[in-house]
Amino acid sequence: MLKNNVRIEKIGIVLIFVAGLVPLTWLQPDAIIAKGDSFPFWLDPNSTLHMDSYLWSFQHMGRPNTFSSYLIYELVWLFLRSMGLSVGLVQAFFQVFFFMGSGLFMYKLARTIYPQLTFAPIISGIFYMFNFFVLEINIFNVGISWTYTFIPLLLMLLITIIKNVNQNNPQTLNKTILYFAAVSSITFSFASQNPANIALILLVLAVMFLYYILVQRKAGHKLFTSTVSLIIITVLLNLWWVVPVFNYYIWSPLYFQEQIDVAKWSWTHDRASLLNLFGLNGFWGWRPEYFHYYDAYSNPILIAFTFVPFLLATVALLFKSSKSRLNAYLMLSILAFIFLAKGLHEPFSQLNLLLYTYIPSMEMFREPVSKFTMAIMPFLALLIGYAVDHIANLKISKIIPTRFTKTFIATFFICTFVVTAFPLVANPIETKTQQVPFSSYVQIPNYWNQATDWLNNQTGEFKILVTPADDFYQMPYNWGYYGTDSFLERLIQKPIISNHYVYSYKENPDIVVTFQQLYSTIRYNRTNEFKAFLDLLNIKYILQRNDIQHNFTGRNIIPPSEMQNFLAQQPYISLIQRFGQLDIYECTEPKPYIYIVNPPTLQQTIIKIENITTLEHTWNFNSPTELEEWQNTTLKIHWQALQQLSLDNGTLKTELWNSTWGWKTINSPILPAQYGDTYQIQADVKGQNAHQVHVKIAECDENKKIITATYAAYVNDGTFDWTHITFNYELTNKTTEYLQMQVWHGHETDKPFPNVIWIDNVQIQGYITILNTTGLDLIFPNTTQNQPATIISYEKINPTKITATVNATQPFILAISEALDQSWTAYVNGTQIKPTSLYLCITGFQINQTGLLDITIEYEPQKWFFYGSIISLSTFLVCTVYLAYSYTKTKTILHKLKQKLTHHRNN
User: Fold this and answer.
1) Rounded to whole angstroms, how far apart are CA atoms 658 and 641?
2) For residues 739 and 671, what is the distance between their CA atoms, to the nearest angstrom?
3) Contact 172, 157 (CB under 8 A)
4) Burial group, residue 549, by CB count within 10 angstroms (0-12, 13-18, 19+)
5) pLDDT at 895
6) Residue 903 — pLDDT band, cuts 50, 70, 90?
7) In what order do the strands lie in the sheet with 789-798?
8) Which pLDDT tens digit goes with each residue over 223-238?
9) Which residue, among 287, 281, 297, has the nearest Cα to 338 in the 3D structure?
10) For 52-95, what is each residue's pLDDT tens digit?
């Protein structure tokens, strides 16, 4: 029997190993996998590794950098690339690792928890690799894949530690603690791509740890001591990545975007019904434009198969054994995570909202399905393995299951997992659809390498402006890529300016408004402002992308011909290089990166972005006149449905009856508009049985005929209390003369009638933004005469350190065209000076000393990273020495024991 179990175990491992090779069938060696938010950031780690080891990035006027926490991942990339592997092969290597690793680690976890069960580890491992959640999860997202892979291994090591505490086996216990700490360092470092991944891993570990604390209370003191040791060693080994991540998310003075809010992301909870979650398919993006195999899941048999995993997990509770209590606990944990995964979807949405309101940092789970379903999966896999094993060994009457019947049953359930997630086998990488016709396999044109190599080889300190502007955070390129422009800062090793920065998790508001205004000057042909921005921001080159698919549906991208005409008309700009569809322009009179500003000059200059109001209208619905204005523009009978507007306690009330198809709109009066203006729209909206309430802005021509209606903001769905919406809108059509706010709702509503919407406090304010350049000529004088100081030399040693030698006759301001934050410090003759903001996102250091001055400017957190890395490396070396000593000692003892046995036999 034991020999048979060993054989099955070997077969299971081989099966998982072979299944883990499936990603090799997706390989296209000559292409990279790039789509949406995900791009292979380590195309050429030889050129990026050095830059990534610093906690400050010079890109986008400067910002804290978290790439240092991914150094292990990048070193693996560097090693594989040095072996001659293409980027596509390296990506395939990681996909194989994620699949094979997740299966094997899950196998080991199930083997640890259910040591007496033969089939359970195999079933758990296969299910964990092939399930619907893995299918629909963003397979391009390495942070999620990394987290999903390592959770079972960390759980297995944690449980092994607790078991060794109870077995009073200190040597094995210490080794396992060190293994856990080392694995955690690898796991957390790249999971930190999104802090929610780290929080999720800790939450899953805490759930399992709590169970063993409750059932093994007798080992209290020993378990407490071991836990303290585990935490200390783990923290020490993880310090190297903790510093950059904490520096960015906690210590950095940057602001989280307003969009990092659960209410603004509640639209991602729309599919998170309990039914969908039990089918592992609550992901908001399960739509035909994102999945080319979407229609295949209209098959009712295939849909039914998606519920097999939860049915099996439930069946696991019916079998009585020593693990019954654990299984019940696992199911309770699964149900708790399902409750969290549904987010603001009914039922009990208000209870979920309380969690988001009162638990600090809970907003990191603003898109809860992709995170909390990931926490469900290891527990679900355990119960599924347990259930299938018991079903295979189930004795019906006097019929004893044979080896064949056991294997058949196990194979049948494995097939249900694989069939349900068949695109994993067929190739889930390719997501090209009719609606979004961009392949996930991309070949970067050679002219991009030529252009970026040329830019990277230019000497001096300068910035590169990338045009045209992103109108949305994913750009369509005519060579097939449709995703974020984050790859620009990986290819170009010089500071760039691109409004891709606007879509970061955290932002410097000064940089955001500066970039927005800069690109507005191009769109609206404000040449004087454009020249001022080039001077202030130290821009020397302009990279014009003519390979953008500017006319892609729904986009508002400046066409290449318009961009080329605009740049050609500027007398201070010349076209100096052309690589394929990329043009490189040079500013003939670039301003310096570092320069002297006379303190009195600050009082004579007014360089800031100002708003001039052009339109202002408010509706508080306190009079019949306001009601009549909205009634005149809103259809009473819309798509054969009745829509009634009335006043209700100082609000506009809309009741919708008999709606079966078609969006219904509640329309504001039509207002005059001017291309080039920005419109700030605010409103309060409440709903009862309302369906998919959102706001669009309609643009009208001179005859008040609608040209376009653009999605602007999501409000809410169902019954919800007053929700405040606010957003800015820029007109997209040059022929627009009027605009209208429209509240859309009611298409194919599944809510009881009437659908009721209340609207109040509507404000539409139009304004034009201008750059006030008063005194700009005083900042960059044509002569050094009467200047308080002269820069003799300066050097940007690395992204976190600048040195300068200045000869000063009076106090002066050393200005740097970078948005340095308060973590930067200038050292002058033992004096520490903090930076101050000068103009927009330009920083300066007020220096009140004279003479020949040696100035060093440093980013202080870089020292913390250096110290943290030393501690982590020292801890790792000590752990390695201990493990080597322990291994040698154990091997010596076993050798001596073997010699004694041999001697005993011979005698």
Assistant:
1) 5
2) 5
3) no
4) middle
5) 62
6) low
7) 789-798, 801-808, 851-859, 824-828, 831-833
8) 788 888 899 999 999 9
9) 281
10) 999 999 999 999 999 999 998 899 999 998 888 888 889 888 98
Q: What distance in Å separates the CA atoms of residue 726 and residue 528, rounded to the nearest whole number? A: 31
> What is the 3-state secondary structure of 607-634?
EEEEEEEEEEEEECCCCHHHHHHHHCCC
- The span from the CA of 594 to the CA of 538, in Å, is 9
Domains along the chain?
Answer: 140-251+860-907 (no CATH), 612-774 (2.60.120.260), 785-858 (2.60.40)
Structure tokens at 710: 């653009």
pLDDT tens digit sequence for 595-635 = 999 998 888 888 999 999 999 999 999 999 999 999 999 99
- 302 pLDDT above the threshold of 70: yes
Quote the tokens at residue 256: 């989280």
Round to whole Å and give the CA distance between 800 and 805.
17
**What does the pLDDT look like over 767-814, one tens digit per residue?**
999 999 998 888 887 766 678 999 999 999 999 999 999 999 999 999
Residue 239 has a pLDDT of 94
Q: Can you read off the two tokens belonging to residue 333?
A: 């944990």
Q: How many CB atoms lie within 10 A of CB 351?
A: 9
Distance of CA 345 to the CA centre of its chain: 22
Closest Cα partner for 733 from 681, 703, 698? 698
Q: State the Cα–Cα distance between residues 515 and 96, nearest whole angstrom.
A: 41
Q: Is 427 strand, coil or helix?
A: coil
Residue 624 neighbours by CB distance under 10 Å: 10
Spatial distance between the Cα atoms of 106 and 381, rounded to a whole number of angstroms: 8
What residue type is 133 in one-letter code?
F
DSSP β-bridge partners for residue 765: 616, 680
Residue bearing tokens 């007398």: 571
- As beta bridge partners, residue 595 has 815
* Count of Cβ atoms closer than 10 Å to residue 423 Cβ: 20
Global model pTM greater than 0.90: no
Residues 6+ apart with CB under 8 A from 183: 150, 153, 154, 157
What are the structure tokens assigned to 281, written together? 């398919």
Checking DSSP bridges between strand 738-745 and strand 641-647, what pairing results, if any? Answer: unpaired
Write the DSSP assignment of 463-532 as a string of letters: EEEEES--SSSSEEBTTS-EE-GGGHHHH--S-EE-GGGGGSSEE-HHHHHHHHHHHHHHHTT-HHHHHH
Eight-class DSSP state of 330: H
State the chain's mean pLDDT as an integer.
89
CB 165 within 8 A of CB 222: yes
- % pLDDT > 90, the chain: 54
Contact (Cβ atoms closer than 8 angstroms) between residue 668 and residue 740: yes
Q: How far apart are the first and last CA of the chain?
A: 34
Answer whether 527's CB lies under 8 Å from 569's CB: yes
Return the H-helix or E-strand segment holding 899.
Answer: helix 861-906
User: pLDDT-based confidence at 897, cuts 50/70/90?
Assistant: low
Q: Which residues of 838-852 are buried (b: 16+ CB within 10 A; e: fewer)?
A: bbbbbbbbbbeeeee
Task: Give 603's contacts (C-beta < 8 A, 6+ positions apart).
Answer: none
Residue 473 has pLDDT above 90, yes or no: no
> What phi, psi does 641 have (nearest 5°)?
-110, 145
The pLDDT of residue 893: 66
Question: What is the C-alpha to C-alpha distance for residues 337 and 319, in angstroms, rounded to an integer?
Answer: 23
Amino acid at 518: L
Q: What is the DSSP string of 632-677?
A: TTS-SEETTEEEEEEE-SSSEEEEEES--SS-EEEEPPPEE--TT-
DSSP string across 701-765: -TT--EEEEEEEEEEEEEEEEEEEEEEEEE---TT--EEEEEEEE-TT--SPSPEEEEEEEEEEE
